[in-house]
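Q: Major facilitator superfamily (MFS) profile domain-containing protein, please. Structure only.
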Amino acid sequence: PALLLVVIFILQQFSGILITVYYTVSFFQSVGTSVDPYLSSIGVGVARLVMTVVTSVLLRNFGRRPLFIYSSIGMAISIFIAGYFTKEIQEEHVEKNSLPVLFILIYISLGSVGFNTIPWIISAELFPIEIRGMAQNLIMGYAHLSISSVLKLYPFMDETLGGAFAVQWMFSIVSLIGALFIFTFLPETHEKKLGEIQEYFKNNSVYPLRHKRQTRELTEEAALEMIKQ
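A: Structure for Major facilitator superfamily (MFS) profile domain-containing protein:
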């Protein structure tokens, strides 16, 4: 579980969801849209407030895996489109417009459901009770250290990659990698007993293979029951 969370928090930082929040005004200035960057930052705050309420409802009714996977895919698509329009504006192929801001707000809203919320929740659900307190504290310390490091790296990333649109496309790629990683390795923890979660890590850490094996075992049990009858 610890290694799984370490990778998830690395993906969280490089998906850009926290960078766009901490560098809101300068990020929108680099995008170069027709919308005032300070007004855009207010939009980010409103979107996050609304999605906090929505996320609390979704997490009570749906599993962690589907919310995480679908929100990451949505993030990848929306920030890629935002990067495309940013590139078109910066290269003066089109006039300045509000489309990059719109898709960045969609990206931030979707991130509030997945990358910005779920890693913190599952850090309290994956560890055995005996070591949960210590393990969670260590993971939280690592997470905040990685947040600080990546925030310091952002200006360098912007300069090295070649501008705002390239940074947004990097966020898109990382978000897509995150969706694939979650699909492959993260077990479902919603409404699961701790014993079921621990059994997953003991027997198999690749979720699709684990699910396939469980299906095969159930099929074999059903076949044996039919033979006995």
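A: Brief note, in case it's useful. The two ends are 42 Å apart (CA to CA).
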